[in-house]
């Protein structure tokens, strides 16, 4: 028994040790594992453009309303925030009710909801427009005093280097207003006073408002196609 044991070929496997990879290949003739090619990932669908629209209590509520209508026609996803004074101004200046205006937006956020998605820089947005923008809101954005969702979201736009347009409605302007506008422009925002273009020879306020809204959305590379552009002197 012992002679036959020692006369045989002693392998690591026979004395309780694990065989080497080469021995496993020789003994078992195993085929290498086949690795399947991973399925290609489908191309993600491009998301809709997304813009935050904020309305404050400054006069010019129709501009915010027309802005929402234009963005809806352009298939841009809108996130609306309205102050309580914006709602009061809408009822006073227009034939719309605040509920009708909110229905124009894809998403509506309460101005006191500081946990809304738009309050975070991780929320993907293509920009924000405050229309109309009161001097109070302008001052809050300038100072970084984020006491409501409008000023907080505007602060996010600035820190994330995204487009922020403030449609400032006030006249005449004090040094405080001008200083705030200058500093916030240096921080990256765009001040857009809705100055009417008289060269279009508008038949009424509606055409003037359409022209202002069209120029506002030009700043986001969006063309409403609903206003006359300057093409030189037309005799």
From TrEMBL:
GO cellular component terms given for this protein: mitochondrion
Description of how the protein assembles with itself and partners: Oligomer.
EC category: transferase
Sequence ranges assigned to domain Flavoprotein in this UniProt record: 50-218
Catalytic activity: dimethylallyl phosphate + FMNH2 = prenylated FMNH2 + phosphate
InterPro entries in alphabetical order: Flavin_trans-like, Flavoprotein, UbiX-like
Homology family: Belongs to the UbiX/PAD1 family.
Region of interest (Disordered), residue spans: 1-46
Composition bias, Polar residues: 1-23
GO MF assignments: carboxy-lyase activity; flavin prenyltransferase activity
Primary role: Flavin prenyltransferase that catalyzes the synthesis of the prenylated FMN cofactor (prenyl-FMN) for the ferulic acid decarboxylase FDC1. The prenyltransferase is metal-independent and links a dimethylallyl moiety from dimethylallyl monophosphate (DMAP) to the flavin N5 and C6 atoms of FMN.
Positions contributing to dimethylallyl phosphate binding: 199, 215
PANTHER family named in the record: FLAVIN PRENYLTRANSFERASE, FLAVIN PRENYLTRANSFERASE PAD1, MITOCHONDRIAL
Source species of the chain: Aspergillus wentii DTO 134E9
This enzyme's EC code(s): 2.5.1.129
Binding-site residues for FMN, renumbered to this chain: 57-59, 83, 134-137, 169
Annotated keywords: Flavoprotein, FMN, Mitochondrion, Prenyltransferase, Transferase
Name of the featured protein: Flavin prenyltransferase PAD1, mitochondrial
Compartment(s) where it occurs, according to its Swiss-Prot or TrEMBL record: Mitochondrion
NCBIfam families per record: PRK06029.1 (NF004685), ubiX_pad (TIGR00421)
């Amino acid at each position: 028994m012992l002679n036959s044991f020692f006369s045989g070929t002693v392998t690591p496997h026979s004395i309780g040790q694990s065989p080497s990879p080469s021995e496993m290949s020789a003994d078992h003739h195993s085929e290498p594992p086949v690795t399947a090619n991973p399925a290609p990932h489908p191309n993600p669908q491009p998301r809709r453009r997304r813009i935050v629209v904020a309305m404050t209590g400054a006069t010019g509520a129709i501009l915010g309303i027309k802005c929402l209508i234009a963005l809806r026609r352009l298939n841009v996803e809108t996130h609306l925030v309205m102050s309580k004074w914006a709602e009061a101004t809408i009822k006073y200046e227009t034939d719309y009710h605040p509920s009708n205006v909110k229905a124009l937006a894809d998403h509506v956020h309460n101005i006191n909801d500081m946990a809304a998605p738009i309050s975070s820089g991780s929320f993907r947005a293509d920009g924000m427009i405050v229309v109309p923008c009161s001097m109070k809101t302008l001052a809050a954005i300038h100072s970084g005093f984020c006491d409501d969702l409008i000023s907080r979201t505007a602060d996010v736009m600035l820190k994330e280097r995204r487009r922020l347009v403030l449609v400032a409605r006030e006249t005449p302007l004090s040094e405080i207003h001008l200083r705030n506008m200058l500093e916030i422009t240096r921080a990256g925002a765009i001040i857009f006073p809705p100055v009417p273009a008289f060269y279009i020879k508008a038949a009424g306020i509606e055409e003037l408002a359409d022209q202002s809204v069209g120029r506002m959305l030009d700043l986001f590379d969006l063309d409403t196609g609903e206003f006359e552009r300057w093409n030189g002197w037309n005799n």
